[in-house]
Amino acid sequence: xxxxxxxxxxxxxxxxxxxxxxxxxxxxxxxxxxxxxxxxxxxxxxxxxxxxxxxxxxxxxxxxxxxxxxxxxxxxxxxxxxxxxxxxxxxxxxxxxxxxxxxxxxxxxxxxxxxxxxxxxxxxxxxxxxxxxxxxxxxxxxxxxxxxxxxxxxxxxxxxxxxxxxxxxxxxxxxxxxxxxxxxxxxxxxxxxxxxxxxxxxxxxxxxxxxxxxxxxxxxxxxxxxxxxxxxxxxxxxxxxxxxxxxxxxxxxxxxxxxxxxxxxxxxxxxxxxxxxxxxxxxxxxxxxxxxxxxxxxxxxxxxxxxxxxxxxxxxxxxxxxx
Length: 323
Fold this sequence. Notes:
By secondary structure, this protein is mostly helical. It has twelve helices and no strands. It has one domain. About 70% of the residues lie in helices and about 0% in strands. Helix 1 crosses helix 4 and helix 2 packs across helix 9. It is globular and about 55 Å long.
């Protein structure tokens, strides 16, 4: 019997069963639609609530509620109840790292950008750089994306660029301050890096447990940064629309859509998951037309058609790739 140090046998890795295609599709639809609406929700919230503390309270509340829900539904089962939320120190560190990259640097900075004047629709468009950055990270790490995947990403970015540039020619309502745009672009890069690096971190196997710890750690960091920034929230002065939008972000944007996104990162190809960045702006624009009576111009129609085509290309190519 040989020791691990002297054994010449190569341990075989047991392949993980692929996630059901229907479940992947459902999670994608949730991320597509719900996250497309959160840009409007964030814009409503930051009209009255300081951005970092507003998002910090959102994620902390969502993390606590989701943790309680997981403990409740697993009560009476082996390892269930609050025991289901138990993680090792290394796993907690991995979750905190993801909390920093996604809720804090990703979503937190998006709220700062919108607070500085970035319109919700333009913010959604700027976030679409995420798939390009993910492709760059994959390339630098030696992972060569398929040529059609790269083409789909570039096509989607071209559609978004046309939507923005052509839209400005029709009145300039989509103009955004440079500092706000740079903040949102940096947030998108941080989100892309977090999405790419997640499979390389030590994390809980349960995607929902992972989400709980990502959200409460990210929420605490956001609150700390907000108070250090000088933010002083005053809930007694906020209107009903603000609380309604904040509640929507907690339940749908965080507990439901964020959980679906984290699950997708561990069960679907990253190129497929990244297509949310192309669909979200389309959803944001449509909601703007329905709720804010924003006109749907030829730029929206043409750019949206190109975006949908790019999503179809990436989905058809990436669905056959193994995680």
